[in-house]
Amino acid sequence: VRLVESGGGLVQAGGSLRLSCGASSGFPFDRYAIGWFRQAPGKEREGVSCISSDNSSSYYADSMKGRFTIFRDTAENTVYLEMNSLNPEDTAVYYCAAKLWIISVQAMCDAPNAMDFWGKGTLVTVSS
Predict the structure, then answer these.
(1) Dihedral angle computed from the Cα positions of residues 104, 49, 93 and 3, in that order, rounded to the nearest 10 degrees
(2) Of 20, 32, 55, 127, which is least surrounded by CB within 10 A?
(3) What's the pLDDT tens digit per position in 2-38?
């Protein structure tokens, strides 16, 4: 199984980016909760946003609320992370991850070490 992120890049503060997370062919993407995590240099990996397999619930870390939006395109087997009002503190490698069984989307985002599958990440750099 391979998760693939795309959409990272260099953006000025206040700008926007849309990250995409897709899966290799045959992966039952719609059965998995998907989460976005990030890791900045010298920091631990942290949960950004997570969405349930049926899209009924989503969770955002406090600093992302109102700025980031997670959504799933079932037909495209892709989960997106729309990021607005970016600031330099958002600079990090962003990873998507999949987990089959979750207690809640918040619990998923709070436990990055418990994911079933990971992508390799995409770098987001926000300049001041």
Answers:
(1) 60
(2) 127
(3) 899 999 999 999 999 999 999 988 888 899 999 999 9
